[in-house]
Amino acid sequence: MSEDKTRRRGDAETWRRVSIALLLVFTLLALNSGGFAQGRRSARKGSHPSALPESMSPEARELVERAIEVICTERKNDPKGSHPIDEMQARPSLPVYSAEALAGAQRARRLLPVAQGLVAASIERLASEYKLDQTKRFKLKMREAIGRVKIVKRVKADMASRDNASVFLRRPQTITFGTIFLSGLPSDEAMISVLAHELVHIADGDGDSLRSLFRAVGNQASGLTGIRIYAQRAEELTCDLVGAMAARSFISNTPDYSPLPRRISRAVEHNCVEDDEGDEDHLSPRNTIRALLALSPSVTRELVYGQPPHR
Predict the structure, then answer these.
(1) How far is it, in rounded angstroms, from Cα 241 to Cα 127?
(2) For residues 219 and 52, what is the distance between their CA atoms, to the nearest angstrom?
């Protein structure tokens, strides 16, 4: 286990290079061993469905696709809509003291304490939903994880990090944001989502405190979507899920006059990319949205129908 955990949310160019390299490898294999190369391609192509069993009805899948359309349409129409991460990747570097970066950093610092409380509550809720809180060992790991969330004190803006956000476990009190990423998230909901994502990495720590939670979420999402989500992919998706949950709680706690679908969309709409590539550790951006909505049917209905479901 490396002592560092980083979250690369943009980096579309890196993903493209990985895809090109894999394509060259598969082509060489195909020339030498025929069907084996095709089988390896299917196994390695992470952003496309595998042969895992499906457990969502056609109606539920259609609702998820409608919700994705709502999210990406809201992004275009919302004055506070986030920039898609592939667009961020194409932007020139942004100085730390630019007005956009300073505004984003101020927003992140203001919302960090809020995000910390929401992450703690969301992790505990997920552990209960997946029935992981029944063992003493896991309860101890949960306490340690939440304790690590609480010690984070600093948001650092970094020009070289560009469209990424990251955490380094040797410096667990700091979340580093690329200046392009700071400027590309102009809403509180988007910033809460990203802060929460990074806080989950810190919560997991270098001892894999949340491994069983990551595995449970990954298994559930795999069964629902037919996409293989395991190991680092499961961790990244769980971080995104907690981010979306934290943003949804934030919306409930801070009502305003904006339409509910618009506010919910802000938490994930930076994934509304044209260049939709994934890699070994991450689902593609649009498949990230797809998996999150599959895991959150009530949010999917809120997006499509514009109001909370009746209880």
Answers:
(1) 13
(2) 10
Using alpha carbons, select from 200, 211, 271 the residue that is nearest to residue 5.
200
pLDDT, position 309: 59
Report the SS3 class of residue 90: helix
CA atoms 187, 192, 197, 201: torsion sign: positive
Q: What percent of the chain has pLDDT over 90?
A: 75
pLDDT score at 55: 80
d(CA 185, CA 57): 34
Residue 3 has pLDDT above 60, yes or no: no
Paired strand residues for 178:
158
Query: What average pLDDT score do residues 16-44 get?
Result: 36
CA distances from 250 to 15, 106, 192, 263 (A): 32, 18, 8, 10
Name every residue whose Cβ is closer than 8 Å to that of residue 238 and which is 6 or more positions away in sequence.
126, 200, 210, 213, 214, 217, 218
Give the C-alpha distances (Å, rounded to integers) separating 254 from 153, 188, 260, 262. Answer: 23, 10, 12, 14
**pLDDT, tens only, 225-235:** 999 999 999 99
Ramachandran region, residue 110 (left: φ > 0; alpha: ψ -120 to 50; beta: rest): alpha
How much is the mean pLDDT over the chain?
A: 85
How many other β-carbons are positioned within 10 Å of the β-carbon of residue 124?
A: 14
> Which pLDDT belongs to residue 307?
75
If you write DSSP's letter for every residue of 143-155 in order, what string do you get? HHHHHHHHT--EE
